[in-house]
Design goal:
alpha+beta; OB fold (Dihydrolipoamide Acetyltransferase, E2P); Chloramphenicol Acetyltransferase; 3 domains; seven-stranded mixed β-sheet; 11 helices; Biotin_lipoyl; tricarboxylic acid cycle; lipoyl
């Protein structure tokens, strides 16, 4: 049976792509989801997986051809000479543990569209360790997300091919596992280094959470100093954070300072390679500054009404919806309200066109141990306060745990960044391209204000709107910020759509 291979969805406002590379040729056997070719657009690189297992028939679009969305790329003869899904490796001469069992390759999992390489961040196992099927072996870092690699079979880890810090492509082999009978033969090797095993399990026969192992390795925290609260004393990420934040014992008086020298300074420095995520953050922020005509306008909002409304209904809200009523839902609603009046703030530039969005996919910037990420709440303009709060809580938790998928961080039309949670009083947020607007929230602080000729103390917050002056004029930006201010100082406006 013949199956068509077509151009996948390329993303918002992208209508065509160029065929860059074919990884397979006619007659080659392919497995389902194996990468067939790579397309290049003006924004991203898109890999095209095989929709079924079989044999590649005719290639319709050759390398260098320009194709539109849903165009026919090739045909696939389903089931004929299909490539086996699991990839097996021949037993290695220097791995006797595999002689009576079967060797299984641990491959880089699917990294997602436009992601072609990753960095091996942390190995949770070492050579000789026994592993269970689906047990986490290592963690990879891409420029967008962290990916945990599970064991494809139960057995013994006999060889680590890609060491920590190595950069691997999407089809690379990471390690080899001896499964079946070979697992039992290799088991004694795992017992040869109990001290090393204790470093990742806290001295107990319990596997700690992978995120906890990674954090301990990054911060130099001794597992023996962490009290695990998970099942059977398993160390969780929260346990490591609690240990790190615990007040340290008062150090002894420091020695008298000495005159610095270049040699002594160098010995006290530490050089750490930037993660893929941090590199991408740096690149995108600089691209934003270089591309957009970015300008920031400021205002301040009296939070009295919002705080009063929240205090009045927070218990009922929690009881009915099962989630706390926070400030972010009020700000999200206020921004949606303002975006309807000033649609250019919700638009983007595509070449010489301005693309207006008749929907609001709200990005909520979140700080994580790995760096800043922006999960997107889709169709926020049609959501209730409770739906928004639930979405923010769920996305925030996934962001902190490094579990967000790329799809959850794409397609935003406007962003809210809350520096106030860290104590920021005033800042100028940087645009998240290709968006044309970002609202910066800040710390709520009591300040004396003149109200009806009287000086009164009010909880005030500075607001900052950074916008792309290429399509948003000063009038539109100021109007947007004033509408947000009005909606927050009188939340009834949101109900009346005023």
């Amino acid at each position: 049976m013949s199956v068509e291979v077509r151009v996948p969805t390329l993303g918002e406002s992208v209508t065509e792509a160029t065929v860059a590379t074919w990884f397979k040729k006619p007659g080659d056997a392919v497995a389902v989801d194996e990468m067939l070719c790579e397309l290049e657009t003006d924004k991203v690189t898109v890999e095209v997986p095989a929709p079924a297992a079989g044999t590649l028939g005719e290639i319709i679009a050759q390398e260098g051809d320009t194709v539109g969305v849903d165009a026919l790329l090739a045909t696939l003869n389903e089931g004929e000479g299909a490539a086996p899904a699991p990839k097996k490796a021949e037993p290695k001469a220097d791995a006797p543990a595999a002689s009576s069992g079967e060797s299984v390759d641990v491959m880089v999992p699917t990294l997602g569209e436009s992601v072609t390489e990753a960095t091996v961040a942390t190995w949770f196992k070492k050579e000789g360790d026994t592993v269970a099927q689906d047990e986490m072996l290592c963690e990879l870092e891409t420029d967008k997300v962290s990916v945990e690699v599970p064991s494809p079979a139960a057995g013994t880890l006999v060889s680590i091919v890609a060491k920590e810090g190595a950069t691997v492509d999407a089809t690379a082999k990471l390690a080899v596992i001896a499964s079946g009978a070979g697992a039992a033969a290799a088991a004694p090797a795992a017992e040869a280094a109990p001290a090393a095993a204790a470093a990742t399990s806290g001295g107990k026969d319990i596997e700690n959470a992978p995120s906890a192992n990674k954090l301990m390795a990054e911060k130099g925290v001794d597992a023996a100093s962490v009290t695990g609260t998970g099942k059977d004393g398993r160390i969780m990420k929260e346990d490591v954070l609690r240990t790190m934040n615990a007040p340290a014992a008062q150090p002894a008086a420091a020695a008298a300072p000495r005159a610095p020298s270049s040699d002594s300074d160098a010995s006290r420095e530490e050089r750490v390679k930037m993660t893929k995520l941090r590199q991408t953050i740096a690149r995108r922020l600089k691209e934003s500054q270089n591309t957009a005509a970015m300008l920031t306008t400021y205002n301040e909002v009296d939070m009295t009404e919002v705080m009063g409304l929240r205090n009045e209904y927070k218990d009922l809200f929690l009881k009915k919806h099962g989630v706390k009523l926070g400030f972010m839902s009020f700000f999200t609603k206020a921004c949606v309200h303002a975006l309807r009046e000033v649609p250019e703030v919700n638009a983007e530039i595509d070449g010489t066109d301005v693309v207006y969005k008749n929907f609001v996919h709200m990005g909520i910037a979140a700080g994580t141990p790995q760096g800043l990420v922006v999960p997107v709440i889709r169709d926020a303009d049609s959501m209730s306060f409770a739906d928004i709060e639930k979405a923010i809580a769920e996305k925030g938790a996934r962001a902190r745990d490094g579990k967000l998928s790329m799809a959850e961080m794409q397609g935003g039309t406007f962003t809210i960044s809350n520096g106030g949670v860290y104590g920021s009083l005033m800042s100028s947020p940087i645009l998240n391209p290709p968006q044309s607007g970002i609202l910066g929230m800040h710390k709520i602080q009591d300040r004396p204000m003149a109200i009806n000729g009287q000086v009164v103390i009010r909880p005030m917050m500075y607001l900052a709107l950074s916008y792309d002056h290429r399509i948003v004029d000063g009038k539109g930006a100021v109007t947007f910020l004033v509408r947000v201010k009005e909606a927050l100082e009188d939340p009834r406006r949101l109900l009346m759509d005023l």
